[in-house]
Amino acid sequence: MKIAKDFRWEMAHRLQCHKGKCFNLHGHSYKMQVEFEGSVNTSTGMVFDYFDVKDIVAPLVDELDHSVIIWEKDSILIEKISELNSAHVVVPFETTAENLVRYFLDKIAKATLPKEITKIKVRVCETENTYAEDVVKL
Ligand SMILES: [Zn+2]
């Protein structure tokens, strides 16, 4: 059985490695689907309570909402955003959708989860027609 919950947030970033438009500081209305797979707990009738999913994932999303996510090697952007006193989160990776998937998967997998859960899938959409997705087996 699979259950999933969707999350949304607004965030700015830029890609240092990109030769085109994504080098520029720009924003996305991010959408993420977090999916849990496992057997249904016979006493609760659930794989995982949606409220518990929200308790784990919402703080991770809230930290990023209306902020600028910045790769730690992008020192000029860290300096300029700090001068503006604007919300930002510094991370040890280029801020691609793929790396954001890994960022969320790592954090969610470390949370206290029901023992019935065998797999976590995270899909991050930067735009309406693009996504990155990966799976962690527990
Ligand atoms: Zn982008």
The gist of it:
The protein has 138 residues and is of the alpha/beta class. 28% of the residues lie in helices and 38% in strands. It has a six-stranded mixed β-sheet with strand order 4-3-1-2-5-6.
Structural features, described:
It is a single chain. This protein has 138 residues and is of the alpha/beta class. The chain has one domain: Tetrahydropterin Synthase, Chain A (2-Layer Sandwich), CATH 3.30.479. Helices cover 28% and strands 38% of the residues. The protein has 3 helices and 6 strands. The protein has helices at residues 50-64, 75-83, 97-110; strands at 2-13, 26-38, 67-71, 88-91, 117-127, 130-137. A 6-stranded mixed β-sheet has the order 4-3-1-2-5-6. The longest helix has 15 residues, at 50-64. The radius of gyration is 16 Å and the shape is elongated. The two termini are 15 Å apart. The mean pLDDT is 96. Zinc ion binds next to strand 2.
Summary tags:
six-stranded mixed sheet; elongated; Tetrahydropterin Synthase, Chain A; 3 helices; single chain; 138 residues; alpha/beta; binds zinc ion; 38% strand; 6 strands
Task: Classify the secondary structure makeup into a structural class.
Answer: alpha/beta
Number of domains: 1
**Large-scale geometry:** elongated
List the helices and strands in order: EEHEHEHEE
What is the CATH T-level topology?
Tetrahydropterin Synthase, Chain A
